[in-house]
Design goal:
The complex is a heterodimer of chains A (100) and B (231). By secondary structure, chain A is mainly α. Chain A is built from four helices and no strands. In chain A, helix 2 crosses helix 3. The longest helix of chain A has 25 residues. Chain A starts with a helix and ends with a helix. With 231 residues, chain B is mainly alpha-helical. Chain B contains 13 helices and no strands. The chains are: A mainly alpha (100), B mainly alpha (231). The interface between A and B is large, with 71 and 91 residues.
Chain lengths: 100, 231
């Protein structure tokens, strides 16, 4: 059980930032007029984050992670439970690493 | 319309119990987070502090993806804000319940705002529920489950050596892919997502650290806004 001091600072900053987001939505809705730009930006944000986050490591991983990503997306698109999609992805990656 | 909103122990209990089935899903996700945090080298205490204080699964997974030795405080903080900005809209949507409570109860309840709790409470609100403690009760159950399951997951992380052999190093990216699929919209998402992917890939090659995340995200989201404007 140990805590690196920089890790602790990072965790505290994440916590404060996340709470600030939670609180500010309620704070602002009581004071600001709604803006269409902000509504749309917030609407598009989560998808853009997810895609920007996974694309580079998936591309860099070569054929195993390409196929793994396709498996996860395929299972998720068929509305498989989260765990099933994840296992399909990890299994595909493991199998191809073994074969290639 | 809003005949007096109340905040009672009964509502707290109702919210807590109504959340039990969804708690099972949270437990799976929490255990997975704890397991992956161990794989990335976070200590048990660091992992539990993150689950207890940040309490937002997607941003905690993102932190694992960005985690380095030493960790970049700026990247982790911006990443958490980006992934969690959706909470702003959720908090705004809960206004009819929160506003009558007074600041202490409203801002206190908001510490436990997460997706599942928001969805349950909004449904209850639209059904005509008037007890705003329901929101806090659901949040409390989720928090307990989240922290507990994180601890269990972290405990088991040690048992598995060579996670790459089982493709487990791919799980963090897989989580984000699985979360992206349900929010894909045929008419609005394709181009913004391609832009986000392209800019992120380019920035990954040219910029240091995790700037690729900020570059790809902003490019994708702004493309989405611009395309919406022209529609």
């Amino acid at each position: 059980m140990s805590v690196d001091s920089l890790a602790l600072v990072a965790i505290l900053c994440m916590a404060l930032a996340t709470y600030a987001v939670r609180a500010s939505g309620f704070f602002l809705v009581q004071r600001l007029p709604r803006s269409r730009f902000l509504d749309r930006f917030l609407h598009h944000l989560p998808g853009a984050v997810f895609v920007a986050l996974v694309t580079p490591p998936v591309l860099a991983g070569g054929p195993p992670t390409w196929a793994g990503a396709a498996a996860v997306v395929g299972f998720a698109a068929l509305r498989a439970p989260l765990l099933a999609s994840l296992l399909a992805g990890a299994g595909t990656v493991a199998l191809l690493r073994l074969l290639l | 319309m809003s005949s007096a909103i109340v905040f009672t122990a009964k509502g707290l209990r109702a919210g807590f119990l109504a959340m039990v089935p969804l708690g099972l899903g949270a437990a799976t996700f929490g255990a997975l987070f704890g397991f992956l945090a161990d794989q990335r080298g976070l200590s048990a205490l660091e992992t539990l502090l993150m689950s207890g204080l940040v309490f937002a699964g997607a941003s905690q997974l993102l932190a694992l993806e960005l985690w380095a030795d030493p960790p970049s405080v700026l990247a982790l903080t911006l990443g958490a804000i980006g992934v969690n900005l959706r909470f702003m809209m959720m908090a705004a949507a809960l206004r009819p319940w929160l506003a009558p409570l007074g600041p202490a109860r409203a801002y206190g309840s908001l510490t436990l705002l997460v997706d599942m709790n928001f969805a349950m409470s909004l449904t209850e609100m639209r059904r005509g529920g008037r007890d705003a403690a329901y929101f806090l009760g659901g949040g409390l159950l989720l928090w307990l489950v989240w922290v507990g399951s994180t601890a269990v997951g972290h405990l088991f992380g040690h048992l598995l050596r060579e996670p790459e052999r089982f493709g487990l190093d791919f799980l963090v990216a897989a989580c984000f892919l699985a979360m992206a699929v349900p929010i894909y919209e045929k008419r609005r998402s394709l181009v913004p997502w391609l832009v986000a992917a392209g800019v992120a890939a380019l920035a990954w090659q040219t910029l240091p650290g995790s700037w690729y995340l900020l570059a790809g995200t902003l490019a994708g989201a702004i493309t989405g806004v611009v395309l919406d404007e022209r529609r």
